[in-house]
Amino acid sequence: LEGIFIGAIFALRAYGLDLVWGVMNIKNLAQGDFVIMGGYMAFGLNMYGVPLFIILPIVLVTMFAYGWIIYLLMIKRILDQDMFVSLLATFGLSLLMQQVINRIYGPEVQTIDMRLPVFEMFDGMVTVPSSKLLALLLAAVIALAVVIFMKRSRTSQAIRATAQDPRAARVLGINVDRIYAFTFAFNSALCGAAGVLVSIIFVIQPFYGITYSMGSFAIVTAAGLGNLPAVIVSAFGIGLFTKYCGFFESAYEYAAPVAVLLAVLMWRQVRMRKNRQVVR
Description:
Blueprint: H1 2-24, H2 31-47, H3 52-78, H4 83-105, E1 118-121, E2 126-129, H5 130-152, H6 154-164, H7 166-171, H8 176-201, H9 209-223, H10 228-248, H11 250-279
Antiparallel strand pairs: 1-2
């Protein structure tokens, strides 16, 4: 059950990374920090008594605007640069976001207590907080909305055209720069939504972003770019693997996504070598 809960949140933030990586070829190392930022926004609003059904749209809109601003100030300037430039730039953004959140909220671990009932099964051997069921339902609704948007909207057609060939998209009248800005802002909004769900079922801390970033990279690497069903399957698979590793040692839970990432990269390298030998 824990693997399913965490897998649903993995899928949200990983799909945003998959979109940015596939459309803009930007490897966003601050992906996890966007999630943490959304979680702290939800935590701050909850302190003022704002209900969850209002917190979620506020965070979505605010994080969308934040992502658009970050694109204009930084991402736009590194689109045509080398891959390592994007890695260094987003790593610097990650450090900046961590320190700003730390200055505002402090380094303590925080969570939102929804004060919802806890269900018990098998004579109390299994307990399922209803807040986690609520988070799973919200993740499913958001994912369904994303699927419908990406399949039926004209903006999604422009995004796919830009991902395939930016020059041809410009010739066809698509404002490629605006599509890039929208894509990055859309990713930021998805991360914000994932952060809200994280804050009500897990814990948040200013420096936890790196663990979420590594998980997202592992999912996207395993699934491949532009494949939403594979992203969802990989997210649930890595979520289950992560929670099972946590049974042996809590530290293994954080190391599991990195181990998956390394394993996938090694397997693909071996397969590429075999393909080259067959061609020869």
